[in-house]
User: Which sequence fits this backbone?
């Protein structure tokens, strides 16, 4: 029995919790398989001796002479410091399988990035994980699965809540990642909302729809970001894995 069906048919209790636990286990296992050979995003920084790091001979030789101990330059690999807000379309059109694949995509983000906030939206936005909140991959997946697929598609509302979260961040690098088909049926123009992000990347989901395609291109352009295409929901986890590798590599 799938978790979406169990949530509708089973009363709260042990068996319902067991079904949820198995669903989360499966989603995390799928995300980890996709990330088996992926490195965590990082960046290189130049430091001076006696800090830890690998000798950077070229930078050392560029220092003015006579050389002293502090002129010995080293390179150290450190984690990429970035706050990311994932913005997830969870409106009525989302079926159980689609929600599970969106949860896999969210798990990939959390497994590869240290600081991931999540906003889901239907008619209204729902902040599932706030910027700066420490949430395990398992708890993040549980929160995504807890959102009922209901209501209309208010992309502008989801983007507004996500940009508000990023405004709370003190990190220099602040990024939004929107997962949507681009077809809004309530709310104002999402392209205007996209322009309020320091950076917004868009994953255009599902079958080609002229209105959705135009909106996704417009949002990515307004947000000074890239656009990715997942033609089916089954493609989504791999597309998000590729986006993380390309957008956040050192």
Assistant:
């Amino acid at each position: 029995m799938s978790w979406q069906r169990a949530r509708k048919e089973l009363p709260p209790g042990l068996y319902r919790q067991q079904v949820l636990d198995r669903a989360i286990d499966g989603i995390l296992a799928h995300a980890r398989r996709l990330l088996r050979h992926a490195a965590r995003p990082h960046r290189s920084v130049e430091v001076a001796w006696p800090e830890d790091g690998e000798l950077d001979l070229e930078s050392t030789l560029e220092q003015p002479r006579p050389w002293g101990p502090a002129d010995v330059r080293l390179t150290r690999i450190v984690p990429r410091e970035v706050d990311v807000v994932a913005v997830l379309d969870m409106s009525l059109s989302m079926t159980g399988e689609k929600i599970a694949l969106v949860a896999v995509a969210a798990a990939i983000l959390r497994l590869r990035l240290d600081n991931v906030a999540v906003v889901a939206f239907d008619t209204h936005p729902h902040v599932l994980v706030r910027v700066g909140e420490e949430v395990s991959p398992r708890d993040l997946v549980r929160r995504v699965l807890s959102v009922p697929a209901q209501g209309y598609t208010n992309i502008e509302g989801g983007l507004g809540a996500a940009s508000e979260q990023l405004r709370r961040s003190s990190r220099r690098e602040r990024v939004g990642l929107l997962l949507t088909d681009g077809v809004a049926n309530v709310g104002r123009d999402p392209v205007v909302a996209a322009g309020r992000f320091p950076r917004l990347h868009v994953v255009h989901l599902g079958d080609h729809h002229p209105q959705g395609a135009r909106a996704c291109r417009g949002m990515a352009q307004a947000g000074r970001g890239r656009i990715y295409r997942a033609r089916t929901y089954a493609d989504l986890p791999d597309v998000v894995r590729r986006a993380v590798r390309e957008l956040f590599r050192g």
